[in-house]
């Protein structure tokens, strides 16, 4: 029987995304991926500089940094950005409202992304909600898997875009439907089209039944990579054929699923 790490390698996923609120990100060195993306989940959960430096010395590390957040603002307070390892790459994002105060949310995004890309020309730019601005920077694109991803990637390539496209997707390496819905049902239910299709007050985990279960079971396959390693590998190959260069997998059941 293949180990979790061997199954993860078989998928063709290129990189792993870790969330510091959920795990000790130093586990990155034990995972079978050369590239590691660490998400930003607020100042209180920013890993210590020495931990990040150790990961950067052993892996190609990229840090998600919100350009509107105090400490990372290239047109204002960038004190925290200055503490990050010099050899760590960036994934530049506007920043989720959950991690920004009212003043930060009012900051203009476009000039800050432009300044940050000038400072980090090899950065990836997170596109969710700011697709046109992200593309205008000319930097590599960091997209979230959705039901329109294949079509969008092909259109982007046909239009002549030759830059880097990295694709972020939650992953569950399991073909048990209840396990998949327990890990990804709530995440998927927050997507607009899914939320509108779900019956009111329906369960969104493995206990979902009827219409809710049908909607969620279809939707998790639009917004995530699920199934055994072979099934996920086939889906990853489709996404790369459509135009993705790098697929970044977030282990929705924790990093041990990849170790």
Quick rundown:
By secondary structure, the protein is α/β, with parallel strands linked by helices. It contains ten helices and nine strands.
Describe the protein's topology.
Layout: H1 4-10, E1 15-18, E2 35-38, H2 49-58, E3 60-66, E4 89-93, H3 102-105, H4 110-119, E5 124-126, H5 131-136, E6 140-144, H6 149-158, E7 165-172, H7 177-189, H8 192-197, H9 210-223, E8 225-226, H10 229-242, E9 246-251
Parallel strand pairs: 1-2, 1-9, 2-3, 3-4, 4-5, 5-6, 6-7, 7-8, 7-9
Helix pairs in contact: 7-9
Mean pLDDT: 96
Total strand segments: 9
Rounded to the nearest angstrom, the distance between the terminal CA atoms is 14 Å
Uncertain runs: none
Q: How big is the Rg?
A: 18 Å
Largest sheet, in brief, is:
8 strands, parallel, barrel
Work out the helix count.
10
| Approximate shape | globular
Structural class: alpha/beta
Regarding CATH, which class of the largest domain? Alpha Beta
Number of domains: 2
Task: Quote the CATH topology of the largest domain.
Answer: TIM Barrel
How helical, in percent, are the residues? Answer: 25-40%
* Lateral strand order in the biggest sheet: 1-2-3-4-5-6-7-9
The string of secondary-structure elements, in order, is: HEEHEEHHEHEHEHHHEHE
Pfam families: DUF7388
GO molecular function: oxidoreductase activity, acting on paired donors, with incorporation or reduction of molecular oxygen
Protein name: Luciferase
């Amino acid at each position: 029987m293949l180990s979790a790490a061997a199954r993860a390698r078989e998928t063709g996923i290129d990189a792993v995304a870790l969330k510091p609120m959920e795990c000790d990100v130093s586990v990155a060195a034990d995972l079978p991926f050369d590239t590691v993306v660490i998400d930003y989940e607020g100042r209180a959960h920013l890993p210590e500089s020495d931990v990040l430096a150790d990961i950067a010395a052993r892996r190609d590390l990229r840090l998600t940094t919100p350009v509107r957040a105090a400490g990372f603002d290239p047109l204002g307070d960038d004190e925290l950005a200055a503490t990050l390892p010099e050899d760590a790459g960036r994934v530049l994002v506007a920043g989720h409202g959950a991690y920004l105060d009212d003043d930060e949310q009012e900051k203009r995004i476009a000039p800050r992304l432009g300044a940050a890309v000038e400072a980090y020309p090899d950065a990836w730019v997170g596109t969710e909600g700011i697709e046109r601005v992200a593309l205008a920077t000319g930097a590599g694109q960091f997209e979230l898997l959705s039901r329109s991803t294949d079509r969008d990637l092909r259109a982007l390539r046909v239009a002549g875009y030759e830059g880097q496209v990295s694709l972020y997707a939650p992953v569950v390496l399991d073909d048990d439907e209840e396990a998949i819905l327990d890990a990804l049902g709530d995440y998927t239910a927050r997507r607009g089209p899914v939320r509108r299709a779900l019956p009111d007050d329906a369960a969104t985990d493995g206990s979902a039944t009827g219409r809710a279960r049908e909607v969620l079971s279809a939707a998790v396959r639009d917004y995530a990579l699920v199934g055994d390693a072979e099934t996920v590998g086939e889906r990853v190959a489709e996404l790369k054929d459509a135009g993705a260069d790098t697929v970044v997998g977030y282990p929705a059941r924790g990093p041990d699923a990849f170790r």
